[in-house]
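Input (structure):
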């Protein structure tokens, strides 16, 4: 039996253990260039060349060099595009589905749970003015009313109502954020047109429409997938609905927020602050208007989910899941964690029971 070809377009396993797993199973590996993950530029032709004849593509997020239809079409043998991470917005999923190729991802708790924790850390950093207090003391200063923080929860003792948190996107991460914050006794409202009332009820989140969420929340946090519908979901008209005292946290995808509009709103004092882990273009470009806004922004290098022992870096959960998905597909089995479920029938007709691995 001819060996299977696997193109690792963006490696993440520094230990190489997952690569050895694939090789032991009989795969020939081709590893893409590390630089593809970050630069501006068009690497499609080079990637097409390397993807030729591949049975599987696997890798981490590669936003500036997405897995396009043309790349997938360069191999009629291609069965699966497998991500070590949750987001698949760097893959042309619709084309994959049309072509009968499965897209798998790795929604591990070490990833989505970490995003929820990191979101809360970023939110507290803003609300409790931690950076400003730290700067003040390091500069030789001490207490100052300008460093006063926000109390989050409601208080029985004096009737303080607490703040309102608005969650946009009630999926894995949005739900975990609400669960973690529930004991803090804040009012939590949410917007997500695609989940049922039962989800809102189970997580004690009051369902509202987007304009109401934006107009009443003290903290707005984004947990939607990036789709044509959610691109620029938060642009100038939406920012204008927010309270001038409110803060915005985005750990979902940069494209969900219009960054120029956000920078303008922050500069004009129409919004108090923002904390961002994700950007329309990554790494954040030197000329981005988000730089130079001082303490009005917390900027994080898309690392909110990165924790010791997490899913990437070695044979962590995410790398293992993605590698197992590739091996299953190469054995002619439908892998776990298929993102484009609607592609499964066509895929089964093409590949079910047809192994390209001897093991
Ligand atoms: P999920 O699929 O479980 O949840 C996404 C939710 O968004 C769904 O409930 C869906 O109904 C909702 N949604 C879709 N369109 C919407 C719209 N127009 N308005 C409101 N809600 C809408 O995904 P998840 O695992 O919770 O991940 C959420 C986001 O976090 C994704 O964008 C993902 O890529 C991102 N993420 C970021 C990092 C990071 O490192 N910063 C890590 C993991 C995930």
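Output (sequence):
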């Amino acid at each position: 039996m001819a060996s299977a070809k696997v193109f690792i377009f963006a490696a993440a396993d520094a230990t190489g253990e997952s690569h050895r797993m694939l090789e032991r199973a009989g795969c020939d590996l081709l590893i893409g260039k590390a630089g593809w993950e970050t630069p501006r530029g068009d690497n499609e032709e080079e990637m097409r060349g390397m993807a030729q004849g591949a049975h599987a593509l696997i890798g981490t997020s590669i936003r500036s060099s997405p897995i396009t239809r043309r790349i997938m079409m360069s191999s009629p043998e291609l069965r699966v595009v497998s991500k070590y991470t949750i987001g698949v917005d760097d893959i042309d999923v619709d084309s994959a589905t049309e072509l009968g190729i499965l897209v798998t991802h790795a929604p591990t708790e070490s990833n989505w749970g970490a995003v929820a924790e990191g979101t809360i850390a970023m939110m507290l950093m803003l609300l409790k003015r931690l950076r400003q207090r730290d700067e003040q003391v390091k500069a030789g200063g001490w207490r100052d009313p300008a460093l006063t923080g926000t109390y989050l929860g409601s208080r029985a003792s004096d009737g303080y109502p607490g703040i309102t948190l608005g969650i946009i996107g009630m999926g894995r991460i949005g739900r975990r954020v609400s669960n973690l914050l529930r004991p803090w006794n804040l009012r939590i409202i949410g917007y997500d047109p695609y989940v049922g009332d039962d989800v809102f009820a189970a997580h004690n989140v009051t369902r509202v429409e987007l304009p109401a969420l934006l107009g009443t929340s003290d903290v707005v946090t984004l947990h939607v997938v990036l789709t044509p519908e959610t691109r620029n979901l938060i642009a100038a008209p939406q920012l204008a609905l927010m309270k001038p005292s409110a803060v915005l946290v985005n750990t979902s995808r940069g494209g969900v927020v219009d960054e120029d509009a956000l920078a303008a709103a922050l500069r004009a004092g129409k919004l108090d602050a923002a904390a961002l882990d994700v950007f329309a273009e990554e790494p954040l470009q030197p000329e981005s208007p988000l730089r130079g806004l001082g303490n009005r922004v917390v900027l994080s290098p898309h690392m909110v989910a990165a924790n010791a022992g997490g899913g990437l870096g070695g044979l962590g959960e995410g790398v293992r899941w993605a590698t197992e998905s590739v091996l299953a597909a190469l054995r002619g089995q439908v892998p776990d964690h298929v993102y484009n479920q609607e592609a499964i029938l066509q895929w089964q007709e093409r590949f079910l029971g047809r192994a390209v691995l001897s093991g």
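Notes: The first strand starts at residue 4 and ends at 10. Residues 109-127 form the longest helix (19 residues).
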